[in-house]
Amino acid sequence: MARDTASFSSDEEDDDRRNLIHQNDTKPAPASPPAEDRAAAFDVEDFGPRIGGDRRSKLSKLAKLALDKRYLFAVFLPVFIVVVYFTADLHSLFSYDVSSIKADSFGDRMRESELRALYLLKQQQVGLQTLWNRAFRDLVADQNSSLSGSNSSEINKGHQSLASSSASFDDFKSSVLKQISLNKEIQDVLLLAHQSGNLSVEGADGFGFDRCKKVDQWFSERRTIEWNPKSNKFLLAICLSGQMSNHLICLEKHMFFAAVLNRVLVIPSFRVDYRYHRVLDIDHINQCLGRKVVISFEEFSEIRKNHLHIDRFICYFSSPQHCYVDDEHVKKLKNLGLSMAKLESPWKEDVKRPNKRTLQDIQAKFASNDDVIAIGDVFFADVEQEWVMQPGGPLAHKCKTLIEPSRLIMLTAERFIQTFLGKDYIALHFRRHGFLKFCNAKKPSCFYPIPQAADCISRVVERANTPVIYLSTDAAESETGLLQSLVVVNEKVVPLVKRPASNSAEKWDALLYRHGLQGDSQVEAMLDKTICAMSSVFIGASGSTFTEDILRLRKDWGSASICDEYLCQGEDPNFIAGNE
């Protein structure tokens, strides 16, 4: 259309120019042209008969002037175009508005689509939250109805059955929460295009839900027994099986025995056992019960210095060996100045197949009027197991737990956490040394290849949404290095933090140095336990008493999480070596 308009204008100018030139070079014809010719063009000859000679001369000059202007315009126009071409950005002049209109149109459609997607995601989020709330209310209602009308002896069993029946519900909760988080993550991505500089986007966990919330331990419904010992009746604890963790569990059971038998518990001497005073606060136990219920062997020796004698030495297990006491241990006891009666057992009890025993059994078989008795080893004893292992233990007291790390170790753990971890971290007990043969003797095995273990750990990290893992392990550097490279969540490697070697520039462990506790392997082990017990989520090693003692502390302190689990819980190792 533009080209046609330009052609039409050019034709008109040529016709005008020809007519004007013709007027200057020829004389008027005596006859008038046809009417249609006069209508089609400006014809000076039409005026010839009606105007005089002077006027004809003036018109001729005017026509010549007009012709000169047209020539000047024809010459000037190309020069003007050339100047404009080299001094102006014609592309920006003629293309900017069109492209801007197109971009604005595309942006509008994009924003409209994003807002529509946000609306649909918001509707999905509301639906998921409604489903979550309804399911949670139903579970609480079921728990309340199941526990209503139950007597105190049935409550603990009821809690355990409910915990077992709600395992699938925990999986359901995890799935729903994962979908809600995914929904929110998509919303956040879409919102990024609509953010202003000061707009903050709510995090993926900003729903008021705690994916790894703390476990309700039902402390108010604990079944307890009072410990009111006679000041002149003593029970010497004999703990010989396993390492420190086994001995601490053994001591906890001895406390129950002492309470049932109304005796003061005597902690073993470091010359025949561990240095308990370096890792435990003995006075803490007495303060929690408001009376003297536990004393050290040194204090016992001072009280009984004129007659250090064990009147009755009772072995809980008769097979395969009485009390786990061998000649070497008997010699150590005698070196303390102790004399003792012959070892005896009130029943036939095999350590490999322990029978379930009750409080009444203990009273019937271990009660005595003797001043000093010794009982050992009770680590494997199955006595009122549900009662003894309940949160807070079986004894009535005013603290969270009785057997816990010393105050110095607790403070050192807190300082380490503040320095390296922060409040949200996963603790991993990764037992490896000597664990391969031990686990492969079990069915199923509990020893996992590093890649499989890393995959299990990554799933827990993703669920707990924590930035760092505290690693408590006896594994070689070759194993921990591989594990570190494989623990990846959202394409990011999750740091595995171990306690570093002592460094004078770091002050988090200064308390241990100040009190001469540095370099003590048992103190360091208890420090590891404490850091693990304070974590947001704990991953333990199945079959390890170190893990079991951490779980006991978490349960008693109220730090246990619904995300706590054994490494690769519910899975078999994807490869198991043959036996020797």
How do the strands and helices of this protein lay out in sequence?
Blueprint (H helix, E strand, L loop, with lengths): L1 H24 L9 H6 L12 H35 L2 H58 L4 H14 L1 H25 L42 E5 L5 H17 L3 E3 L9 H4 L2 H8 L4 E2 L1 H7 L5 E2 L1 E4 L11 H9 L3 E2 L2 E2 L11 E2 L1 H8 L5 E5 L5 E2 L1 H4 L18 H15 L4 E5 L4 H6 L9 H15 L4 E5 L3 H10 L1 E2 L2 E2 L2 E2 L12 H5 L6 H13 L3 E4 L4 H13 L7 E2 L14
Parallel strand pairs: 1-2, 1-9, 2-3, 4-6, 5-7, 5-9, 8-10, 11-12, 11-16, 12-15, 16-17
Antiparallel strand pairs: 13-14
Helix pairs in contact: 1-3, 4-6, 7-20, 14-19, 16-17, 19-20
Strand order of the biggest β-sheet: 3-2-1-9-5-7
Number of DSSP helices? 20
Strand content: 5-15%
Distance between the termini: 95 Å
Number of strands: 17
Instruction: Supply Rg.
Output: 47 Å
Range of helix content: 40-55%
Q: What is the highest CATH level, the class of the domain at 406-566?
A: Alpha Beta
Average per-residue pLDDT, rounded, comes to 78
CATH T-level fold name of the domain at 406-566 = Rossmann fold
For the record, the CATH architecture of the domain at 406-566 stands as 3-Layer(aba) Sandwich
Largest sheet: 6 strands, parallel
Quickly give the structural class: alpha/beta
Poorly predicted runs are 1-52, 82-86, 88-103, 152-156, 196-208
What would you call the shape?
A: elongated
